[in-house]
C-alpha cells in the first residue's frame, strides 16, 4: 500500500494534468497508453449532455478542453463513496487536491447549493473525496448537507445515510432511521429479531424503553397468536367458538392487545403470557387504562358480574365500595354502548358524582329510580311531579313518586 | 372564466396567461397529434391554468393517467408525460416506455414535461434504466405560483420555498407594467415563515370556507361533498335512486353568494342565507307583477341570473346544513372548548382530561396530535412529565411505530420539551392581543372573529407592520422563532408610485410553509377595513389546514412500495 501512497503523494504534487498510472514504470509511452486505455473505457459512461455548460472537459492527455467531465453513472455514485472508489477511474480526470481546495472555498453557500441542486458538484465531490473529507466539508454547509441527506433518503442509500448521521453525531436520528426499517419487514419472526437488534441503538432514554416495549409486545403477541390459533382450530374452547376471532393480534397496539386479552383470556392466572394481569404488570399499564379496557371487554361480553368486580374495592376492614378511576359517567357510557340492561346501568348511574350529569344520564337512559331518588334528595317537588309523565301509568315507579310526594316529612324547596 | 382572477386589486389573469403561453409553446414544440400521460397529482393545479379546450387546440387528442403497464393504443404522433420529478414515477414511465411496441407504425415520439422543474436525479434514474434516450423533448414547466382567486396565489407544493426568490422575479416580469421602467405593483412584500406561527394552523377554523376545508377538504378550489343533500328534486319523480357519486363543486369568488359568505364566521352565515332566500323569492314573485310585454321581457332576461342565484343558494344552504350537523355535535363543542382554553392560556401546563379521554376512546390520531401540539405551542413546550405521559399513552394506544411520527413533530417544533423553563406564550398573547374575549361574530371589528376569539398571530404581525410598525413590538418579536428584518428597496423618485388620495397601499404577504383559509379571511378583513390603509394580496407555498398539515409531517408508516 505504501507504494501507492508514495505514488499518490507524487501525483498530488506534480504538475496538474500529467498523465499518471500506478505502475512504477517511468516509461512515458506506456504511461500514455495506460491513460488512453483508461479514458477510452470511460467513454461509454461519460455523457455529452449539452446542458453542461459550466463543466470543463479534460482530454485523455490531461489538457482541458473547455468542459469538465461529470460522471453520470448512478452506481458509480455509491461506489465512489465506498472505500475502494477513487482508484477505479482514470486518474488524469481528477483534479489535484490542491486545485480542489481552492475551488470549494470560493463557493459561497448559495453557489454550492446551486451547483449541488444540479447534482454535478455532489457527484464530482463524491468521486474525488474520501468520505470523511466530504462529510467534514458538508458539516459546515448546512443547506448542502440537507440536500445530501434528502438525496440519500430518496435513493434509499441507507448505509451511507447512517454513516453520515453518525459522523454528525446525530445518533438519535441514526437510531430512528434504522428503527424505521422494521416497517419493511413483513415476516413477524424476522421483524421480532430486527426489533431486538434495535434495542441497543442510541435512542433517547424514553424512546429506548418504548422500543424495548415494542419488542416485548411483539414477542408476546407471537406466542399468544400461535396458542390461540391452535385453540381455535381445536374447537374445544367455548369463548373462541362463540366469538371467532376476526383478525390476528400480531402488530396490534398494546391497548388493543390488552382488550383482546381481557376478552379471550380474562380468567387466566398472572403466570401466563396471555393473561391481562401479566400484560398490566409487564408493560406497567396504569390502573385507569386497565380498568377502562377491561370494562369495555367484559361489557361487550355482557359479563356484568365481572364489571361489578372491577369496580369494587375492598378496604382493610372488609367493606366493599365502588370506585372507578375513570368516573362513573364513563362507565355508564361504555355499558350503555353495549346495551346493558337498565337494572345494571341504573346501579352505576346512581354513583355518578355530579348531580346534573347524573340526572341527564338517568333521564336519557330511563333509569327512573335514580331520577326519582335524586329529585327527592334535591327536594325538588316541581321536577318530581313533572317526571310522573315519563313513567308508565300504574307502574311501581309512579307509585313511588306518589308516595314520596305525599310524604309529609319532606321539606320541599318548591 | 377568469372573472374571479380579475376581481382583486391586482389583476392576476396576467399570471395565468403567462402559464398558458408557456404550455402552448411546449405543446407546439412537440409537433403533431399528441396524447398526454398525466401524473394524477398535477391534474388539479393544471386545471386552474388551462382547460382541455386549450389542449385540444394544440392537437392533444387523448389524455390518460400515468400507471404501470402498456400505454393505451392511441393513434398519435407524440406521447408526452406530464410528471413531478419523483423517482417512483420514473419507474412507471420506464415501464411504459419499455413495453412500447417498437414494431408499430407509425412510431410514437416520447417527451417529458417535468413540473415544476427538471431533476438530475430523475434523469439519471431514467438513464440507468436505459430509457433516457427515448425522450426527444425533456423540459420543465415552472408551475410555480398558481392564481387561485383574485387575491390569492398558491404553489400547491410542499417543499418549494427555496424557489421563492425566483418566483418573485418571474412575477415581476409577468405583471403588465411592472417592468423596471414602470411602477412596481406592490408597495410592501411580507415574507412570513410558517415557523413564526405554528399555533394558527392547529386551531379549528371557524369561517365558512375554513370549515368546509376542515371537514371536506378543498382541492384546487374544488370540494367533494356527500351527494344526498344535492339530489335534484324533480317534480313527479318519486323514488329515484339517490346519486352515489360525491357532489363536486367549485368554490371561488366568481360565485356572488360564495364571495359574500366565505370569509364570515359560520355563525353569521345563516342569516345571510335566509335574507338571500327572501330576496330571491321576491324576485321570482315579480313574474306575477309583470303585466306589459316590456315588463315580461325584462323579467325573462333576468331569469338566467336569478336561476343561477337560486341554485347557488340551494347549494350553500345544503353545505351549511352539513356543516351545522358537525358544529352542533357534542364532540365538536368539547374539542373547541379545549382548544380555546389552551389559546387563552388556561391549564396548558398539565395533562388535559379531554385529550386523555379521547385517546382512551381511540379517536383519530390526527385529532389527538392537533390538540397536544396546540397545548405544547401554547405552553412554549411541555414539561417532561406531561410530554412523557402523552407520548406513552399515544404509543400504547396507537402503536409504537408512532415514535417516528412524534419525532417528526418534535423536529418541526410542534410537540417538544419546554427547554427554557419559562412559558413565553402569555406575554406574546397579551402584547399582540391574540385572545379577544369580546368577539363579535356577526359584525366583527377585529380579525379574531375567524377563530371566535383567537386572532391569528401571523395576521396580527401583518396588521401591526402596517400600523404602527414593528418597532412597537420589538421585544415580543425576539421571542418568536427566527430572525426578522426589514429591507427597503430604493426606487428612483420618478418611479415611486404616485398614490391617489385615499388609495391604499398594496402588500403582498407570502406565507412560506402554508396558509389557512381563516388567515386569508383575516387578511381580507383587514383589506376592507375603513381607513385600513392597506390592501393585501396573498401568496403561499400551499393551502393547508391542521389535518393536512400534521398529515404531511406524519411518518408514512406503510412499507415502501419497492
In short:
Chain A is mainly alpha-helical.
Straight-line N-to-C gap of chain B: 43 Å
Distance between the termini of chain A: 104 Å
What portion of residues of chain B belong to β-strands? 5-15%
Low-confidence stretches of chain B: 176-183
> What's the shape of chain B?
globular
* Number of DSSP E strands of chain A: 2
Number of helices of chain A: 23
**Helices and strands of chain B: which structural class?**
alpha/beta
Q: Give the uncertain stretches of chain A in residue-range form.
A: 11-32, 38-107
Mean pLDDT of chain B: 86
- Oligomeric status of the shown chains? heterodimer
Strand order of the largest sheet of chain A: 1-2
Radius of gyration of chain A: 38 Å
Write out key terms for the chains shown.
heterodimer; A: 414 residues; mainly alpha; B: 562 residues; 13 strands; 42% helix; 12% strand; globular
Describe the structure.
The complex is a heterodimer of chains A (414) and B (562). Chain A has 414 residues and is mainly α. Chain A is built from 23 helices and two strands. Chain A is elongated, with a radius of gyration of 38 Å. In chain B, helix 17 packs parallel to helix 19. Chain B is globular and about 75 Å long. Chain B contains 20 helices and 13 strands.
Map the helices and strands.
The complex is a heterodimer of chains A (414) and B (562).
Chain A: H1 2-13, H2 28-42, H3 74-81, H4 97-106, H5 109-117, H6 120-128, H7 131-139, H8 142-155, H9 158-167, H10 171-180, H11 188-198, H12 205-234, H13 238-242, H14 254-264, H15 276-283, H16 287-300, H17 304-310, E1 312-314, E2 320-322, H18 328-337, H19 342-349, H20 355-364, H21 368-378, H22 381-387, H23 396-405
Antiparallel strand pairs in A: 1-2
Chain B: H1 13-29, E1 34-38, H2 40-47, H3 52-57, E2 60-65, E3 78-83, H4 87-98, E4 109-114, H5 120-128, E5 135-140, E6 146-149, E7 152-154, H6 164-174, E8 188-193, H7 208-216, E9 218-219, E10 222-225, E11 247-250, H8 256-261, H9 269-289, H10 293-327, H11 330-343, H12 353-360, H13 365-377, H14 384-398, H15 403-411, H16 425-431, H17 457-466, H18 474-479, E12 505-512, H19 517-527, E13 534-540, H20 546-553
Parallel strand pairs in B: 1-2, 1-3, 3-4, 4-5, 7-13, 8-12, 12-13
Antiparallel strand pairs in B: 6-7, 9-10, 10-11
Amino acid at each position: 500500500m505504501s507504494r501507492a501512497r508514495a505514488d499518490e503523494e507524487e501525483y498530488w504534487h506534480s504538475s496538474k494534468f500529467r498523465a499518471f498510472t500506478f505502475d512504477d514504470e517511468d516509461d512515458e509511452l506506456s504511461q500514455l497508453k495506460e491513460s488512453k486505455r483508461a479514458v477510452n473505457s470511460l467513454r461509454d459512461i461519460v455523457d455529452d449532455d449539452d446542458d453542461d455548460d459550466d463543466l470543463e472537459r479534460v482530454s485523455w492527455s490531461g489538457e482541458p478542453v473547455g468542459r469538465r467531465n461529470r460522471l453520470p453513472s448512478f452506481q458509480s455514485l455509491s461506489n465512489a463513496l465506498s472505500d475502494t472508489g477513487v482508484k477505479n477511474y482514470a486518474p488524469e480526470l481528477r483534479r489535484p487536491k490542491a486545485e480542489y481546495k481552492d475551488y470549494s472555498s470560493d463557493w459561497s453557500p448559495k453557489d454550492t447549493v446551486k451547483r449541488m441542486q444540479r447534482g454535478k458538484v455532489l457527484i464530482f465531490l463524491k468521486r474525488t473525496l474520501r468520505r470523511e473529507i466530504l462529510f467534514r466539508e458538508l458539516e459546515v454547509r448546512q443547506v448542502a448537507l440537507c440536500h445530501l441527506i434528502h438525496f440519500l433518503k430518496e435513493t434509499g442509500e441507507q448505509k451511507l445515510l447512517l454513516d453520515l448521521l453518525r459522523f454528525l453525531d446525530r445518533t438519535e436520528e441514526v437510531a430512528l432511521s434504522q428503527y424505521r426499517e422494521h416497517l419493511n419487514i413483513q415476516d413477524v419472526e424476522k421483524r421480532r429479531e430486527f426489533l431486538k437488534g434495535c434495542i441497543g441503538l442510541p435512542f433517547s432514554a424514553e424512546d429506548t424503553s418504548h422500543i424495548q416495549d415494542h419488542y416485548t409486545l411483539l414477542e408476546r403477541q407471537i406466542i399468544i397468536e400461535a396458542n390461540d390459533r391452535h385453540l381455535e382450530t381445536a374447537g374445544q374452547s367455548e369463548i373462541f367458538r362463540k366469538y371467532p376471532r376476526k383478525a390476528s393480534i400480531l402488530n396490534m397496539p398494546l391497548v388493543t392487545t390488552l382488550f383482546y386479552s381481557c376478552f379471550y383470556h380474562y380468567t387466566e392466572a398472572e403466570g401466563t403470557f396471555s393473561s391481562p394481569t401479566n400484560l398490566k404488570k409487564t408493560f406497567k399499564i396504569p390502573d385507569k387504562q386497565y380498568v377502562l379496557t377491561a370494562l369495555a371487554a367484559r361489557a361487550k361480553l355482557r359479563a356484568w358480574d365481572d364489571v361489578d368486580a372491577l369496580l369494587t374495592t375492598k378496604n382493610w376492614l372488609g367493606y366493599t365500595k365502588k370506585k372507578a378511576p375513570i368516573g362513573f359517567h364513563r362507565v355508564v357510557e361504555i355499558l350503555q354502548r353495549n346495551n346493558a340492561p337498565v337494572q345494571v346501568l341504573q346501579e352505576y348511574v346512581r354513583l355518578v358524582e355530579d348531580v346534573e350529569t347524573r340526572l341527564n344520564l338517568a333521564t336519557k337512559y330511563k333509569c327512573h329510580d335514580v331520577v326519582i331518588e335524586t329529585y327527592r334528595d334535591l327536594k325538588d317537588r316541581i321536577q318530581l311531579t313533572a317526571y310522573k309523565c315519563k313513567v308508565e301509568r300504574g307502574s311501581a315507579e309512579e307509585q313511588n313518586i306518589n308516595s314520596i310526594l305525599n310524604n309529609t316529612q319532606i321539606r320541599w324547596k318548591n | 372564466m377568469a372573472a374571479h382572477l380579475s376581481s382583486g386589486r391586482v389583476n392576476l389573469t396576467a399570471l395565468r396567461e403567462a402559464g398558458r403561453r408557456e404550455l402552448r409553446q411546449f405543446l407546439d414544440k412537440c409537433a403533431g397529434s399528441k396524447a398526454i400521460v398525466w401524473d394524477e397529482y398535477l391534474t388539479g393545479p393544471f386545471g386552474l391554468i388551462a382547460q382541455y379546450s386549450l389542449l385540444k387546440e394544440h392537437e392533444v387528442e387523448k389524455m390518460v393517467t400515468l400507471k404501470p403497464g402498456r400505454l393505451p393504443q392511441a393513434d398519435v404522433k407524440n406521447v408526452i408525460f406530464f410528471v413531478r420529478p419523483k423517482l417512483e414515477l420514473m419507474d412507471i414511465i420506464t415501464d411504459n416506455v419499455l413495453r412500447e411496441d417498437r414494431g408499430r407504425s407509425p412510431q410514437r415520439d416520447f417527451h417529458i414535461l417535468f413540473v415544476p422543474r427538471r431533476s438530475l436525479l430523475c434523469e439519471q434514474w431514467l438513464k440507468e434504466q436505459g430509457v433516457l434516450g427515448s425522450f426527444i423533448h425533456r423540459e420543465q414547466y415552472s408551475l410555480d405560483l398558481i392564481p387561485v382567486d383574485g387575491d390569492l396565489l398558491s404553489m400547491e407544493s410542499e417543499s418549494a420555498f427555496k424557489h421563492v426568490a425566483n418566483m418573485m422575479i418571474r412575477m415581476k416580469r409577468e405583471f403588465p407594467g411592472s417592468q423596471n421602467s414602470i411602477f412596481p405593483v406592490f408597495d410592501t412584500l411580507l415574507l412570513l415563515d410558517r415557523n413564526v406561527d405554528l399555533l394558527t394552523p392547529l386551531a379549528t377554523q371557524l369561517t365558512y370556507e375554513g370549515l368546509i376545508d376542515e371537514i371536506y377538504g378543498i382541492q384546487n378550489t374544488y370540494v367533494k361533498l356527500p351527494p344526498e343533500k344535492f339530489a335534484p328534486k324533480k317534480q313527479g319523480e318519486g323514488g329515484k335512486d339517490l346519486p352515489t357519486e360525491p357532489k363536486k363543486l367549485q368554490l371561488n369568488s366568481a360565485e356572488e353568494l360564495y364571495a359574500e359568505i366565505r370569509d364570515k364566521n359560520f355563525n353569521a352565515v345563516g342569516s345571510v342565507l335566509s335574507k338571500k332566500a327572501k330576496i330571491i323569492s321576491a324576485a321570482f314573485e315579480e313574474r306575477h307583477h309583470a303585466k306589459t310585454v316590456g315588463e315580461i321581457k325584462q323579467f325573462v332576461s333576468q331569469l338566467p341570473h336569478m336561476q343561477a342565484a337560486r341554485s347557488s343558494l340551494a347549494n350553500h344552504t345544503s353545505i351549511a346544513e352539513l356543516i351545522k350537523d358537525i358544529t352542533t355535535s357534542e364532540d365538536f363543542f368539547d374539542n373547541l372548548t379545549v382548544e380555546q382554553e389552551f389559546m387563552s392560556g388556561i391549564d396548558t401546563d398539565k395533562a388535559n382530561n379531554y385529550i386523555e379521554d379521547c385517546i382512551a376512546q381511540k379517536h383519530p390520531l390526527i385529532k389527538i396530535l392537533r390538540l397536544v401540539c396546540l397545548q405544547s405551542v401554547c405552553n412554549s413546550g411541555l414539561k417532561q412529565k406531561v410530554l412523557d405521559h402523552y407520548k406513552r399513552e399515544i404509543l400504547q394506544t396507537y402503536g409504537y411505530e408512532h415514535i417516528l411520527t412524534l419525532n417528526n413533530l418534535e423536529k418541526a417544533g410542534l410537540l417538544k420539551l419546554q427547554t427554557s423553563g419559562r412559558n413565553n406564550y402569555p406575554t406574546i398573547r397579551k402584547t399582540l392581543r391574540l385572545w379577544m374575549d369580546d368577539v363579535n361574530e356577526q359584525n366583527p371589528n377585529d380579525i379574531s372573529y375567524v377563530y371566535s376569539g383567537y386572532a391569528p398571530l401571523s395576521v396580527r404581525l401583518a396588521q401591526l407592520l402596517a400600523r404602527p410598525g414593528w418597532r412597537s413590538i420589538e421585544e415580543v418579536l425576539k421571542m418568536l422563532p427566527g430572525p426578522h428584518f426589514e429591507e427597503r428597496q430604493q426606487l428612483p423618485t420618478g418611479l415611486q408610485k404616485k398614490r391617489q388620495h385615499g388609495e391604499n397601499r398594496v402588500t403582498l404577504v407570502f406565507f412560506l410553509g402554508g396558509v389557512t383559509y381563516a388567515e386569508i379571511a383575516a387578511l381580507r378583513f383587514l383589506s376592507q377595513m375603513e381607513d385600513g390603509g392597506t390592501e393585501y394580496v396573498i401568496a403561499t407555498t400551499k393551502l393547508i389546514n391542521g389535518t393536512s398539515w400534521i398529515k404531511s409531517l406524519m411518518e408514512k408508516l406503510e412499507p415502501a412500495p419497492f
